[in-house]
Design a protein that fits this description.
Layout (H helix, E strand, L loop, with lengths): L10 E4 L13 E11 L8 E10 L14 E5 L3 E4 H53 L7 E4 L3 E4 L1 H8 L3 H14 L9 H4 L5
Antiparallel strand pairs: 1-2, 1-5, 2-3, 3-4, 6-7
């Protein structure tokens, strides 16, 4: 705070080693008793110091040492604001933090509900698909749901369901291998597309 704005017998918010340009929470409530100009040998200009009486101890990181009833001299720049203004501002910030905390908790709850709903959906889909496949002649558990968009089915179950026999597979393999004895076409394209088109 500017030294010209500090008046004796007024109540202020004080914070030891206050970061420049900020008003941290946890300041002490103090009364200004007197002011004086001080010129230190290492400083180019004189600075103002304020004698304060601590009325209510601060709760900030650097404030635990300074208890109620103590008098001391502090740099005027450590006086942040009139106590009433500071206290009102801190109360508004505390209420705002509480509101933000409630919003974060609500968002977290909604995400948890959405995650739980998605997991439940996967389980329900697995059960419904399993029931329908059993109704159509496939053994239960032969098809697995991969997420909500794909399924995994055992090849032997799929072959049986489609009516493809081991003999058909062996004949197709022989046809592929017989059509190109050098082995350059082994992708099954001759069987998949026998016309060559």
């Amino acid at each position: 705070m500017n030294a010209s704005q500090i008046f004796t017998n007024e109540e202020y918010a004080w914070y030891k080693n206050k970061p420049k340009g900020s008003n941290p929470a946890g300041a002490a409530k103090v009364k200004a008793l007197s002011t004086k100009k001080v010129k230190h040998s290492w400083a180019k200009n004189a600075s103002t110091e304020v004698e304060i009486l601590i009325l209510k101890a601060g709760t900030g990181y650097t404030m635990s040492y300074y208890q109620e009833g103590r008098k001391l001299w502090v740099p005027a720049r450590e006086i942040m604001d009139f106590w009433d203004s500071y206290h009102d501002e801190q109360e508004m910030l505390r209420l705002e933090r509480g509101k933000q905390q409630r919003l974060l908790e609500e968002e977290r709850r909604q995400r948890e509900e959405a995650r739980h709903r998605a997991q439940t959906r996967v389980l329900v889909l697995q059960n419904l698909i399993g029931q329908r496949l059993v109704e159509r002649g496939l053994p239960y558990g032969s098809v697995s749901l991969l997420g909500t968009e794909a399924v995994s089915i055992k090849v032997e179950v799929l072959l049986a369901w489609l009516g493809i026999t081991d003999g058909e597979v062996d004949n197709a393999v022989d046809t592929v291998l017989g059509s190109d004895p050098e082995g350059s076409t082994t992708d099954g394209s001759a069987v998949l597309n026998p016309s060559g088109a």
